[in-house]
């Protein structure tokens, strides 16, 4: 599913709930929500969506790995901040029903 599919699905879902919302409006709201989440992660904040999961960042230290293309050579990966997502227990249970 890509963003356009998600926007259409949300608009359709809201239509079944009695709301008349255009796909374009849903897409604008979705983009705004993603921008806010991205801005918060850039600032080092975590974003928690109860019942869905938590978006957060994790600092990764500098690491050295063997280069698989050149025997004996090593590759250094610089320190960086990586985004992470932790699903909630409710989301895990919905995806993996027992």
Notable characteristics:
98 residues, alpha+beta, HU Protein, Chain A, 2 domains, three-stranded antiparallel β-sheet, two-stranded antiparallel ribbon, 28% strand
Helix content: 40-55%
CATH topology of the largest domain: HU Protein, Chain A
CATH class of the largest domain: Few Secondary Structures
Structural class: alpha+beta
Strand arrangement within the widest β-sheet reads 1-2-5
Tell me the name of the CATH homologous superfamily of the largest domain.
IHF-like DNA-binding proteins
> Strand share of the residues?
25-35%
Specify the overall morphology.
elongated
Largest β sheet strand count, sense and barrel closure: 3 strands, antiparallel
End-to-end distance, in Å?
25 Å
Number of helices: 3
Overall structural domain count:
2
Q: Any guess at the CATH architecture of the largest domain?
A: Irregular
Mean of residue pLDDT? Answer: 93
The low-confidence runs, each spanning 5 or more residues with pLDDT under 50, are: none
H/E series, N to C?
Answer: HHEEEEEH
Detailed description of the structure:
With 98 residues, the protein is of the alpha+beta class. It has 2 domains: 1-43; 46-98, HU Protein, Chain A, CATH 4.10.520. The chain is 42% helix and 28% strand. It is built from 3 helices and 5 strands; from the N terminus they run ααβββββα. It has helices at residues 3-16, 23-42, 89-95, and strands at 47-49, 53-60, 63-66, 74-77, 80-87. The strands form 2 sheets. Strands 1-2-5 form a 3-stranded antiparallel sheet. A hairpin with a 3-residue loop joins strand 1 (47-49) and strand 2. Helix 1 (3-16) packs across helix 2 (23-42). It is elongated. The two termini are 25 Å apart.
């Amino acid at each position: 599913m890509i963003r356009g599919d998600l926007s259409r699905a949300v608009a359709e879902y809201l239509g079944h709930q009695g709301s008349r919302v255009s796909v374009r409006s849903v897409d604008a709201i979705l983009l705004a929500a993603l921008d806010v989440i991205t801005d918060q992660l850039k600032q080092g904040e975590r974003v928690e969506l109860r019942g869905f999961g938590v978006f957060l960042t994790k600092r990764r230290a500098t690491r050295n790995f063997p280069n698989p293309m050149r025997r004996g050579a090593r590759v250094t990966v610089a320190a960086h901040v990586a985004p992470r997502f932790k699903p909630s227990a409710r989301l895990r249970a919905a995806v993996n029903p027992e």
